[in-house]
Amino acid sequence: MSENTAAVDDGFERFLREHRDALVGFLARRAGEEDAKDIAQESMVRLMRYRAQPPEQLKLLMYRIALNVLNDRGRRQQTRQAGAHVSLDEDYDNLPSGEASHDQRVAHQQELVLVRAAILQLPERCRQVYLLNRLEGMSYSEIARHCGISVKAVEKHIGKALAQLRLKLKQAGMAAMERP
């Protein structure tokens, strides 16, 4: 290494040492202490390309590079929605799940069994009208035409089905609550 290169290296390294704390302080006001240290480090690495420049220009370049790195990080975090990320190390057991718990699935299955049983206990015509409406999505007038009855009769069958189902499920629910 020649004397000239050594002098440039010493001057550049001295420049970095002298201005590092000021740069970190400048960045900390914009990004927080830990991020500021990382951004300052990355800025100084990028500044190495310009190490032959005079110190006055290096200082301006250093702050411009630091602002660019800060802006790049902000855009990257916004694009990746970094604020929405959840660390798996911190609270793995309490992560929300899209699936129901085992207990919820069992309870749901039990409710379905109760509903099916209650529907099967309805009188035949009442059950037919109820299922055409609830499962097939037929309107009252469509059911009336399909079954050869009046719309008023359909309304009465639906009303009767709902009342009986409510009663049966209420009785079944109360019996289930009384069990230990």
Automatic annotation (TrEMBL):
Residues that span the membrane, as ranges: none
GO molecular function annotation: DNA binding; sigma factor activity
Domain RNA polymerase sigma factor 70 region 4 type: 114-165
RNA polymerase sigma-70 region domain span: 16-78
Protein keywords: Sigma factor, Transcription, Transcription regulation
GO annotation terms (biological process): DNA-templated transcription initiation
KW Transcription (keyword) present: yes
Gene3D superfamilies the UniProt entry points to: 1.10.1740.10, Winged helix-like DNA-binding domain superfamily/Winged helix DNA-binding domain (1.10.10.10)
Family to which the UniProt record says this protein belongs: Belongs to the sigma-70 factor family. ECF subfamily.
Protein name: RNA polymerase sigma factor
